[in-house]
Design a protein that fits this description.
homodimer, about 400 residues, alpha/beta, about 20% strand, globular
Chain lengths: ~400, ~400
């Protein structure tokens, strides 16, 4: 069955709200962050919604942000793979092309002992973003091209940046098989980038020249006096949500990574001022008439989970709950609320645990869960399902799928 | 794993009762048709049964009757596909053979401008079924054979009919690759049927002659003065339930479509008088000693659902409940009760929602569901499972499957 053949376009609106790293584990009195949070609006909505939990990739598998989001967008994360460098470049607003090799960069602090370079801080003391911007501009000014390969470098937050090497022609698959230069430990020398095959080695030659030139430019900086590169990657071929699901889709997100992911599946990125949930809602309202599918990303649930700060995570859930009525006022035909993966505060990181999922539409049973929590969602009509099936369910609830077979 | 290798024939009896379009959504006071129905006998049985819900094809996918039934018979509906024309012919009671090409027909109204034929109504004003019967009989009378190919034509409802072209020998695969003749728009000429390959073109030649002769017969009808053909199809090759599961299977159904589907998987069709559940039970009793597996089809749950008549649907469920003790008196070793898909009255059509399933045998846990409803079945030991797995479960409960591996 090709889902494409069943697509029935209509004027319905699908709103997907992703609270990054939503799911959790007991943190206090045997209760999870979602169970401890006071969420009167979610409590009310959940009773009229279909609930369940989704498995982002597979049982026991902890997803990164890429696989986590691809799954909930309807793309099998084991089939569609996105290199880290591509994700970072997209996130920093570089429109990556088929002829590109992209890579993530860190500014680092090194000391020089004769010919030796020793890493003393892999993150250059997490320099302020402003300083990063100044330094990155200096490098970009000095290096525009290397042997006919265009070099695009963009600052990220703190010590992070992305580099894109734009070749004159499309590179064969496997041209991104180049090792990371980050030695992963202080007191060691950065690694030399080497290609695993002749095509990749051709790219690696350019990269080595770039590192040499760039570190020459910044060698006298007090902190950011070196660069480390990780995650060389080519742009994957991914059909758009329009092509696969007939959805004109947009993304409302603050952080670059998630914008990058959304643009990779063909979503338009909505520009807006500010970085609060309120700002996201204002942006959503402005484009409500222009799209079929809206992906709203809320980051801080994950950030606090990663910090092991369960009170912080609870406060973001409660803040979201306060804003929920504003999302509902838009009257989406289908509303889904979930996470891209779990980030239990007790694990201080992403985890493999199934993620609570709520789908609200006129065509659900409802009445199965009292609250939007891990344990209550277990009672729901959606059961435990693979994340990649969520989009099919959203399309069905939006009456955007024709009958299969006579 | 080949299920075939695990088959362990014995004398057990498996009874599968399909209430067509069984599952529903809340219609009144937040309750579904099954929740509103008074079903004392099901309430009693369900407590001693395994319960769950099955997904007919995939999450969010709404099945037609073909895929819906193939799934519960144990055939992956994404692997075994039944052409539209075949299904229509089966539905109108034509017993299709391996040498057949079947197609759906519409009577249409055309105007003739010189040599040109222009469609003015693709459905001939939805002529009454009685008129259809008269016209179809007229065509059948005039055309019995074309160049040694037998022509069988049967009226359906309103403007619909089916034609079977019965060739003297089996046709190669792909012989049904012929375009629809319906131009899909009024004001256009009907399309000429053409074969995509030499075998199909041979069939298309016969079809062109048929269209010419048939339209000659009806050219002076006030409305139904032309025919449009859609969905040319050969009989699919499907291994029988005997071959796959070692089951001597029979079908007790009133409507031709479901008999047709059952015959496609090798079930014997039991002939009987009448069309009530009571009549079906009498027929079942008569053949109880002759088969291993009995498929009993109850249609009206779906019909009322399609009409949006939830009270009608409830009354059929209640009527079935009254007759349940008579089914139990036969003492099937394994009894399964389910639907082929959901037909919520609020949607007035088939839907994607998981379908309640009950399996009664001596080898179930039971004690998980208080009633046979969508929400109560969510609590059951079968969970939410793909329809195609049901037959394996029935075989297991009938102790008809050997251990896999040592």
């Amino acid at each position: 069955m090709e889902l494409k053949e069943l697509i029935n376009r209509n004027s319905s609106k699908i709103l997907l709200i992703v609270l990054d790293g939503l799911g959790g584990l007991p943190v206090k009195e045997g209760k999870t962050e979602l169970e401890l949070a006071k969420t009167p609006n979610l409590d009310e909505l959940v009773k009229r919604s279909a609930t369940g939990l989704h498995i982002p990739v597979d049982y026991g598998i902890t997803p990164g942000s890429g696989p986590g989001h691809l799954g909930i967008f309807g793309y099998d994360p084991q089939k569609y793979k996105i290199g880290r460098g591509i994700l970072e470049a997209l996130g920093l607003g570089i429109e990556v092309q088929d002829t590109d090799i992209a890579v993530r960069g860190n500014y680092a602090t090194v000391k020089r002992e004769g010919n030796k370079v020793i890493v003393v801080d892999r993150r250059a003391g997490r320099i302020p973003t402003e300083e990063n911007r100044r330094i990155t501009a200096k490098i970009q000014e000095a290096i525009k091209e290397i042997d006919g390969v265009k070099v695009i470098i963009r600052p990220g937050m703190e010590h992070r940046f992305a580099v894109v090497f734009r070749f004159p022609e499309k590179l064969p698959p496997g041209s991104d098989a180049i090792n990371d230069t980050d030695p992963q430990q202080v007191g060691k020398e950065p690694l030399e980038p080497r290609g695993e095959n002749p095509n990749a080695e051709r790219v690696a030659q350019i990269v080595r020249k770039f590192i040499q030139k760039a570190t020459e430019v910044i060698k006298d900086e007090p902190k950011a006096n070196y660069i480390l590169l990780r995650g060389f990657a080519q742009k994957p071929h991914i059909p758009t949500m329009e092509e696969r699901f007939g959805l004109k889709a947009c993304c409302i997100a603050v952080y670059p990574m998630y914008k990058g992911l959304a643009s990779l599946v063909g979503m338009d990125l909505i520009e807006f001022e500010g970085n609060t949930i309120k700002d996201e809602i204002e942006a959503l309202k402005k484009v409500w008439n222009e799209y079929d599918y809206f992906f709203v990303h809320i980051k801080k649930t994950d950030s606090y989970g990663e910090d092991g700060n369960y009170e912080g995570k609870i406060s973001v859930i409660e803040e979201f709950d306060k804003h929920l009525p504003e999302f509902l006022e838009l009257k989406p035909d289908v509303l889904a609320i979930t996470g891209d993966h779990s980030t239990p505060s007790v694990l201080k990181g992403h985890s493999w645990h199934p993620v609570p999922l709520l789908i609200h539409s006129p065509y659900v049973l409802g009445g199965t869960s009292e609250r939007f929590t891990e344990r209550e969602c277990l009672k729901g009509e959606l059961g435990i399902l693979p994340a990649v099936k969520i989009t099919q369910l959203l399309l069905a609830n939006a009456l955007r799928l024709k009958k299969y077979g006579a």
